[in-house]
Design a protein that fits this description.
25% of the residues lie in helices and 21% in strands. The chain is built from 5 helices and 8 strands. α1 (38-45) crosses α5 (182-202). It is globular and about 45 Å long.
């Protein structure tokens, strides 16, 4: 999803220093297939200037990379996106967006290391690209929520139909969002934090 037209924070973004009130910093990964909006989400919600590692898509990627939407998308993340958001005065989230192109998935293991949880961004026009993503998280024991990014031309389905299509259990939260909007992206992160809290209270999160 193009970052143009996305929300931006008013005024200059803060320096990359933890607020003096912060007592805990948590690593969260944002994952999904190519072009689902990971870079846009990090950019819209981060309170510091986000770090991106986007490179221009070239002819060399033809036949290798996912070219869905390549008529409007000219760059792709090759390492990671990085941002930060304070959920409360005491809790800060460090956000790591993963590369979507399959040839860069070898980087995921390092990005998953130490992550408390994950957001899986989904495009309903290409649900199948989410299966491997969720499988990798399950193998790594990383809890996740699913965020359905609302593209203008994407079909919309009831949550329970999506749950069946994605083969998800009843406990995994599914939330619709528009990652261009800071409030919507923050709602996704709050949903993840509530989910992680419920897992911790039940003893399922160690």
């Amino acid at each position: 999803m193009d970052f143009k037209g996305s929300d931006t924070l008013p005024g200059p973004r803060t320096e990359d220093q933890l607020p003096h009130t912060a007592q805990a910093a948590v690593k969260i990964v944002i994952v999904g297939g190519f072009g689902v909006g990971k870079t846009t989400m990090v950019g819209s919600v981060s309170e510091i200037r986000p770090l991106t590692t986007e490179e221009t898509m070239t002819q060399a990627g033809i036949g290798v990379d996912d070219d869905y939407g390549s008529d409007s998308k000219t760059a792709t993340t090759v390492a990671m996106d990085f941002g930060r958001i304070s959920i409360t005065e005491k809790l800060v989230l460090y956000l790591f967006g993963t590369p979507g192109q399959e040839r860069f998935w070898f980087l995921w293991n390092g990005l998953f290391e130490g992550a408390l949880g994950a957001v899986v961004l989904v495009d309903t026009r290409r649900l199948e690209v989410s299966f491997d993503v969720m499988g990798r998280l399950e193998e790594g024991g990383v809890p996740f929520v699913v965020a359905v990014n609302s593209f203008p031309d994407a079909p919309r389905y009831p949550v329970e139909e999506l749950r069946i299509a994605l083969d998800l259990g009843p406990d995994v939260p599914i939330i619709e969002c528009d990652v261009r909007r800071r409030a919507s992206s923050k709602d996704v992160l709050l949903t993840l934090m509530r989910f992680l809290h419920s897992l911790a209270m039940s003893g399922a999160l160690t």
